[in-house]
Amino acid sequence: MRILMLGGGGMVGQKLATRLAKDGQVGGKSISALLLHDVVEPAQPEAAFAVTSKVSDLSAPGEAAALVAFKPDLVFHLAAIVSGEAEADFDKGYRINLNGTWNLFEALRLAQLSPRVVFTSSIAVFGAPFPAAIDDDFLTAPLTSYGTQKAIGELLLADYTRKGLFDGIGIRLPTICVRPGKPNKAASGFFSNIIREPLAGMEAVLPVSEQVRHTHASPRSAVNFLMHAATIDGALVGPRRNLSMPGVSCTVADQIAALRAIAGDNTVARIIRAPDPTIAKIVEGWPRNFDAKRARDLGFTAETSFDEIIHVHVADELGGKIAG
């Protein structure tokens, strides 16, 4: 099996690459080669199969075709600029998140390869007003440019799949938390920041009210989502190819309470309240809770509490140790 990963230099992409290198197979099929692509050089995990990388702009003319010449059996399309940046830079958001996706899909169509394509969408495809929990029949009506770009990608994925041009599965990721590394430009970044930095002994800024509610899953769950999407029987999914993933719905106050229970008051004291109306407005338009019945019935699983999400971060990123 030959695997092409777009966005291979990102946090989720790097964790997925490490998982692929460790497992050496997907769905019982041995991996023969992995090509990691990004706008910066992705780190290459040690593996029993060939791992290569390429640095380029997926939205540039000819780049998608050059990547598809790798002849992948499986494509992970994780490449995108994040929500806050897409909202701030309209042209860049559409060029990367929409044109890049379109170029990839067209290159696959013209190459007549018909691989499984796993596309990472987002819960930002939904817009207010929201029900108590968004079910599988709730309409997509995004209120941000990022959400709009992802919603268009979902429609393209479903149509190219319907036409038999490839076999696509779109997974709407909840906010991935706790993200390792440094803060990024995602409007949702503070959800991780207020846990990650205090656990590491540093201050973190909270730009929204503690009553803000959101849905989260760990990086470990994100990788599990992607691996399951790569192998799931498309006939079981049916024509509705985009799925909302399960996760933990909780308020910022719930996050902080979980942090306090695990790491104590001194850790929580490192959270600094600094309201940011721009971020608050973006987050206000995001969904808060999901009834992800289709995904659960199809075997997708995630954490069931925010305490569990923090414990995953401590185990996977901190070696089981918390700063004093």
Automatic annotation (TrEMBL):
CDD domains membership: Gne_like_SDR_e
UniProt key word NADP: yes
UniProt superkingdom: Bacteria
Domain NAD-dependent epimerase/dehydratase: 3-203
Keywords associated with the record: Carbohydrate metabolism, NADP
InterPro entries the record matches: DenD, Epimerase_deHydtase, NAD(P)-bd_dom_sf
Keyword Cell wall biogenesis/degradation belongs to the record: no
Protein name: NAD-dependent epimerase
MF-aspect GO terms: oxidoreductase activity
